[in-house]
């Protein structure tokens, strides 16, 4: 079976197009998610940087709602995978089934074949099933029974997970966490935002009223425009120094990987574009260091005993790195 996608080049876009389209997507999502502008903006940065997003928090704070709203605001294919202990890897990747009429095996695509894949409660599945996402998240392809199938761009996994202290969860392995560009924590809404939620969401489902404001081809063009954002050599060196600071920190027994360095730079480009700049500054890098690096590192025993979070450790590492001259 062939899974050929439209290979037409993405239409050229400018930074003004990025601001216009992403502004419309943000407005659409905010009709569903009240008072979470920072979380929404980070999700959009990950989309523009061709990354994947991990949304971690307690149940009921809007993790899945954010992922669904992002998918519905873009006219593209969206699939939701509910991760459970009995979910199989073939449910994600797909499986070859023998067709009695044609006397041949046919490939039945799994849930991963979509532009935006919503992985709900990813840490409730077994590590074997979680690992079924590894190839698709890094190489944007799936290999089944010796055949490789390419995934259509844009491709983004938005996974939600509950804190590992909760019953029935499996901690994500380091290789899995490292493939997520950023992690966000929704947090509880403010009292004002919660009142607005009761007013607007109490009698109807806001997702049912959400309509797409852009399409996959446009998003591909926006991604290409973000890649053209200039990064000065001094800023690239700053990115490397920030990541190296995590590897040298005594509070961490596992620092950030080279993949983290690359993804931090990509996210910084998207952050600069949303700030109406065609160049990256050290502030872009410092702002995103926590969301991009904190979920990839492992604290030392001493840091755990002192109850120091990885976000605090990353922030301290960033402060210790000298800021280069502005480009």
Automatic annotation (TrEMBL):
This is AAA domain-containing protein. CDD domains: AAA (cd00009). It comes from Auraticoccus cholistanensis. It holds the Pfam family AAA_lid_2. Residues 52-181 form the ATPase AAA-3 domain. Residues 245-314 form the ChlI/MoxR AAA lid domain. GO terms for molecular function: ATP binding; ATP hydrolysis activity. Gene3D superfamilies: Magnesium chelatase subunit I, C-Terminal domain (1.10.8.80), P-loop containing nucleotide triphosphate hydrolases (3.40.50.300).
């Amino acid at each position: 079976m062939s899974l050929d996608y439209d290979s037409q080049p993405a239409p050229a876009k400018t930074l003004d197009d990025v601001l216009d389209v992403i502004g419309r997507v943000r407005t659409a999502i905010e009709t569903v998610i009240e008072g979470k502008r920072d979380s929404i903006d980070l999700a959009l940065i990950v989309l523009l940087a061709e990354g994947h997003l991990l949304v971690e928090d307690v149940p009921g704070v809007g993790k899945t709602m954010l992922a669904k709203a992002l998918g519905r605001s873009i006219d593209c294919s969206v699939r939701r995978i509910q991760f459970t202990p009995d979910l199989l890897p073939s449910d994600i990747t797909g499986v070859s089934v023998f067709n009695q009429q044609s006397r041949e095996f046919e490939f039945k695509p799994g849930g991963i074949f979509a532009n935006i894949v919503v992985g709900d409660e990813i840490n409730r599945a077994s590590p074997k099933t979680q690992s079924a996402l590894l190839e698709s998240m890094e190489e944007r392809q799936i290999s089944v029974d010796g055949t490789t199938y390419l995934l259509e761009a844009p491709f983004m996994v938005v996974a939600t997970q509950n804190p590992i202290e909760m019953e029935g969860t499996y901690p994500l392995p380091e290789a899995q966490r490292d493939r997520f560009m950023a992690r966000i924590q929704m947090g509880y809404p403010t009292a004002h935002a919660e009142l607005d939620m009761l007013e607007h969401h109490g009698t109807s489902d806001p997702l049912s009223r959400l309509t797409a404001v852009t399409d996959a081809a446009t998003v591909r063009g926006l991604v290409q425009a973000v890649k053209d954002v200039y990064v000065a050599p001094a800023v690239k060196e700053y990115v490397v120094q920030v990541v190296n600071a995590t590897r040298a920190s005594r509070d961490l027994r596992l620092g950030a990987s080279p993949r983290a360095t690359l993804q931090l730079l990509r996210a910084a480009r998207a952050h600069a574009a949303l700030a109406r700049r065609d160049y990256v500054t050290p502030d872009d890098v410092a702002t995103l260091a926590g969301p991009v690096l904190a979920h990839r590192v492992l604290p030392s025993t001493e840091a755990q005993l002192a109850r120091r979070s990885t976000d605090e450790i990353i922030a301290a590492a960033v402060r210790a790195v000298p800021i280069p001259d502005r480009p």
